[in-house]
Structures are given as structure tokens and as C-alpha cells.
Amino acid sequence: MPAHPSSDTRDRMQALATVCVLAVVSLVIAFLGAAPARVSATELMGDERAPAEPAFVVSHRGGGALAPENTLPAVSAALAAGFDYLEVDLALTADRIPVLMHDKTVDRTTDGHGRVAALTLKQIKALDAGSWFDSAYAGTQVPTLEEFLEVLAPSGRRALLELKGEWDAEAGAALIETLRRHGLERRVGIVSFDPRSLLATSGASELAFRLLILKRLPRDIAQAVKGADARGIIVDWKAVARRPEVVEEMHELGLRVVVYTLNTDVEWKDTVEAGVDGIVTDEPARLLEWQDAWARADE
Ligand code: G3P
Ligand code: CA
Fold it and tell me: What domains sit in the chain, N to C, each tagged with a CATH number?
């Protein structure tokens, strides 16, 4: 018996080792390819803002100042106007279909009556969601999430979807699946006042981007955000105005700050000076003009 392996044996062992290394590398590449990265705040909202830097502008209720709020005419008008971010409200019907609706009832924005959660999609589709705004919009229907995404997807724009009411894991998973089907998981932020509804989407998608909406600032904001598996807040500007240093505190924690719903240049100035990342407004065209003028004055 030879004391050392023959050169043939050494060659075979080297070849085997090379095959093993290549197999491991392929597995790592396949794994990375199969697990897309989480949507980053920068991907969805651009870089974190410094004080006095223009914020991203969100058209409230889909363009609710241009046409009846949360309807396809409002969405189309906002897209035609060139707004990059649309915010819409989503509520679940009795048969658990997400539709664009702000209020708990259909009374204010349609010619019908009753709670959204007590009406089927068929009943809601029979309502007129345009006449209350202007007779020119008579016959406009309440859109489903599906119909909204069909318009949003080819536009290349982004959206914040606000979950109204309470969403359970089944509704959260269906929402994520709908976003995936439209290829929109990376262009949409999911937002809600209700941390449990945000968490309901969390199990179905680790990569989705979530923001917790707050009327007031809790003492431990980081804990509140983490508890909702969110990566920032949408907060009533009045709460930030009382505690503007919170913007820097949030940024230091790697969390984003968006404020709602501001429609005057006095508020916009204070907001931009505080360094918030985004502003939700009913007046996106005026805010964009104001921010352009603000940036030029700063040059
Ligand atoms: O984006 C947050 C803001 O839309 C919350 O207020 O009442 O208009 O849904 P609301
Ligand atoms: Ca909203």
C-alpha cells in the first residue's frame, strides 16, 4: 500500500472539493435570489430629510380636492397632475373585499346609508359616490382595492394604503397577495392608526413597508413603532409642533416621519424646517410649487 495518495486520487479529491464549493456558492446565490430584500425607506421615500430640505408630497384621499375622494376619477386626476404619492383609505365590506372609503359609513360620500362593514360589495357598487361632490361625477362607483391597483400599477407612482377598521391576518394576507399580483409590493406603504391591523400584514410579508399613524406622540415612540412592525410614523403635525425635536430623535433611530394633513404655507414652512420626510396634503399642487420656491430661495 502506498503511504501517500496517488496523483490520480489527489486530482479526484480536488475535483470533488471544487464541486462542493461550487454547490455551496450556488445554494447561497439561489437563497439570496429567492429572498428579496425588505423595502427600504429610501427606496420608497428617498433619502432621510435634513432640516429645511423639501419633503415628499402625498396627495390625500387619492386627490380628494380634485374629484370625489377615494374614487378612480380622483386617482386619475392626481396621476394626471403628476403627483408621485397617493394616499387612499381602505375599508372591508361585509364580504371582506377592500374598497376605497374613509368613513365607517357610506353616508357622507355616497347616496346610500349604513356601515361599510355591514354592506356587501354588490350593495356598495350600486351606490353613487360622485354626486355629493359635483353632479358632473354622478354615477361614479366606490372602487375596490383591485381597481385602484390596476390604475396605479402602470403609472409607476407610489401609494400609502391606510387600513381603516380592524384587519385580521386573513385580510392582511389577502392584501399582500393582491399587491404581489400587481407587482406593487415595493411601491406601496401600508399605514394605519391600528397597530394590530399593521401586524396582520406582517406575517404575510417581511418585506412590506409599514408606518404607524399617530394622533399624539406616546412617551416611547420607538416601542410603539416596533410593536406595530413599522418603520416610522405618520403623525398629526400639531403633536410634532409641540415637540419638534422628535424628528431628529426618530431619524437617529433610523425611523421616518411623515406629517398629516397640512394645507397652508405657514404649516408647510414649520414642517419643512423641522426636517420631516413627507407631508400629506389636500393641496399637493400648491405644496409642490411652494417647495420649489422654497428650495430656489435657499440657493
Ligand atoms: O395619512 C394619514 C391621514 O390620512 C389620516 O387622516 O382621517 O384623513 O384618514 P384621515
Ligand atoms: Ca387617510
Answer: 43-297 (3.20.20.190)
